[in-house]
Here is the input.
Amino acid sequence: MSAKGVTVWFTGLPGAGKSTVARLLAARLIARGVPTEVLDGDAVRTSLSRDLGFTRRDRDSNVARIGFVCGLLTRNGITAIAAAVAPYAEARAALRAEIGDFLEIHVATPLEVCEARDRSGRYAAARRGELQNFTGVSDPYEAPAAPDLRLDLAERSAEACAVEVEALLETRGYLG
Amino acid sequence: MSAKGVTVWFTGLPGAGKSTVARLLAARLIARGVPTEVLDGDAVRTSLSRDLGFTRRDRDSNVARIGFVCGLLTRNGITAIAAAVAPYAEARAALRAEIGDFLEIHVATPLEVCEARDRSGRYAAARRGELQNFTGVSDPYEAPAAPDLRLDLAERSAEACAVEVEALLETRGYLG
Here is the structure.
């Protein structure tokens, strides 16, 4: 299937469910024949961003590098799905300006829910002071003021959220 | 035009003519409708690799990052053309192993020719000791033992070399 390239960026707190929805969306798109790549913020820290930490400067560099790759994919007709905290509004605005075909999806799971779940144990570690610069605990998260879509994983399943994003891609004309 | 993705990596000394042939090849492929991206080693140092210097470790990181992006593009049917010194045989072998559809093109302009031309003035700066870790002067260049193609820009024009690479892509079945 031919599709117009676009970057779908899932932003949200650690543990919000970004990677889960991203993977479900990718599976749905691939099943439709849409060329799709997932850039996972945690995963690229072993390749693109191995040298980076979690200061604001390093976070912005990480987001910019993922954005650079998403931009290349997007302009070649590929749906690039990024799942990365991207806590700073300015960095996200820069992505939109650079990439153009860009959808900002806020995975708006509340902090209490992310922290109560804490599947990776990182919230607990951050509270104990063992993890520095942890978004939501010791670092800010600037929630998007006007995302293209806001997902509430407390209200709906991850699969239902993926369907919602797929419908947005349809509406915006990205699925040919 | 539909094409099979491939990474075409131009390796060679600084000033050998890698970027020139890469751009000429890209123009020829784009004119044929082949989806093509150029990853220029110098250019990505302002985006993907802003933090990196020229130690062996940093060079290997730079090559690995460019390779990561080339791999994503390649598996999505895009011709990724990299123009980057990539002085270490081991790093180049890792690219081939990771990407699979990978052509190593040695732009084999001799050191004396690159240095005599020295369009960027970097050879002179390296000889004066103002540039450290400069490939060919104070850093090694491990010439490919068995490249897919060796280009001699002393013997032929850059355009003729681009045509030669295009012919190799044909032969190897990458141009549909």
Observations:
- Residues 56-75 of chain B form the longest helix (20 residues).
- The mean pLDDT of chain B is 94.
- Chain B has one domain: 6-171.
- Residues 6-171 of chain B form a domain with the Rossmann fold fold (CATH 3.40.50.300).
